[in-house]
Amino acid sequence: MKRKLREIAQPAAGGVLTDTLYISRGALFFEGPAGYQEITQLHMDEGLDRFRNPQEQQQTLAHISQIPEGRVFLACSGRTIVGYVTFHRPEFPRWNTCGLQELLELGGLEVSKNWRGMGIGRGLLEYAFLAHDFEDCIVISMETYCNWDLQGSGMNLWEYRRMLENILLRVGLERRLTDDPEITDHPANMLTARVGSNVSRETRVCFEKLLFLKRNGN
Is residue 74 domain-resident? Predict the structure, then answer.
């Protein structure tokens, strides 16, 4: 299948971000950060059911758009959401009680099972990091194998992890070692992180300590 992703780059003065993915089924549009009203006025593709049914997932996206530091980016075909990526304060125990205000979690990246294999997830993630300034943040992604759609993807466990790692690396999320039980619970789990260029040295040091609490006597 031929596809063309126009170069996503910072616009010249007076210009706009390129946010369109051209595939054989037509043009997809990347939007965001999307607000509550925009999200609720769109339709959810029926293939967006990995975490909950599409209607419930739409309400979850709308909720995330309203919480502090919540960000929702969408891939749309016309008025239908076919993919999304979310960012919010961390939910996992170690990271949501650490007190680092600069910390954000890449909470979910899903493409409808009816629209996979077209580069949508990769393109949407790249768009999100160019449409929004994350340079003051440390973005983490907690990848746990129990949430992966192995059956729908047709990949085995390690192929799927390699695919995820490659996509995340494209936007600067690099795999980090940690003693967090959520990650060490299974060898396929992984933590990735992207430290923004404006994050202070003090915050960076605190983050590094969080990676290995046992080593640091906590």
Answer: yes
| Tens of pLDDT, residues 102-149 | 999 999 999 999 999 888 999 999 999 988 889 999 999 999 999 898
* Number of structural domains the chain divides into: 1
Q: What is the pTM of this model?
A: 0.87
Judge whether 216 lies within some domain.
no
217 lies in some domain: no
Q: What are the backbone dihedrals phi and psi of residue 103, each rounded to the nearest 5 degrees, phi first?
A: -90, 130
Q: How far is CA 65 from the centre of its chain?
A: 14
Over residues 60-105, the pLDDT tens digits come to 999 999 998 999 999 999 999 999 999 999 988 899 888 899 999 9
Q: Please give the Cα distance from 218 to 214 (Å, whole number).
A: 5
Provide CB contacts within 8 A for 174, sequence distance 6+.
168, 192, 193, 194
DSSP string, 97-161: SS--TTEEEEEEEEE-TTS-SSSHHHHHHHHHHHHS--TT-EEEEEE-GGG--HHHHT--HHHHH
Tokens of 163: 């695919």
Question: Residue 147 maps to which CATH number?
Answer: 3.40.630.30
Contact 5/119 with Cβ under 8 angstroms? yes
